[in-house]
Amino acid sequence: MNSALRRARARLAQVAPAEADVSLPSGHSVRALLDRYLLAFERADTDELARLLRDDAVLEMPPVPAWFSGRDDVLRFFTMHVLTEPDLHRLVRTAANGQPAVAVYRRGPNGQFEAHAIQVLSVIAGQISRIDTFLDAKLFRVFGLPSVYPGDTASRSAVGAAGSALDRS
């Protein structure tokens, strides 16, 4: 048992981020990062997404048993299954448990952008280290967000004001 704990601690020491990298980024830097992320996502701009993700970025979609580790694997999944064309999504800044997040609306067959997923982002040293995607449209109610994106003329802050601490910072 003790040797297993020693090995686990040694491995954690190798892969854990440096303490200086774990400090919470300021509201302004998170807002700027989220703005770049949501524009890249909406435009299906994987080159910009690559600049925003850490090399060791992780994408997980609980409870779906899919887990992608590393920038290349995350981008490959997004390119093949999510970001298949520009203007397929609309994103709104929000927050979840004190972490930056985005609400993802996906264009439906009728052309309206419908509630699709909540992505909770972890940020380390000014880059996205983790994306936890919850594919549950019912969560939008919990965040005070409408189930249908109210149109391109609406302000992202107005749409997400009920659920977003970041928009008020």
Short précis:
With 169 residues, the protein is α+β, with helices and mostly antiparallel strands. It contains six helices and six strands; from the N terminus they run αααββαββββαα. The chain is 35% helix and 28% strand.
Characterization of this structure:
The protein has a single domain, classed as Roll (Nuclear Transport Factor 2, Chain: A), CATH 3.10.450. By secondary structure, it is an alpha+beta fold. The C terminus is likely disordered. It is built from six helices and six strands. A six-stranded mixed sheet has the order 2-1-6-5-4-3.
Summarize the SSE layout with pairings.
Blueprint: H1 2-15, H2 27-43, H3 46-52, E1 53-60, E2 67-69, H4 71-82, E3 89-96, E4 99-107, E5 113-124, E6 127-134, H5 139-142, H6 156-160
Parallel strand pairs: 1-6
Antiparallel strand pairs: 1-2, 3-4, 4-5, 5-6
Helix pairs in contact: 2-3
Which tags fit this structure?
6 helices, Nuclear Transport Factor 2, Chain: A, six-stranded mixed sheet, about 170 residues, 6 strands, alpha+beta, disordered C terminus, globular, single chain, about 35% helix
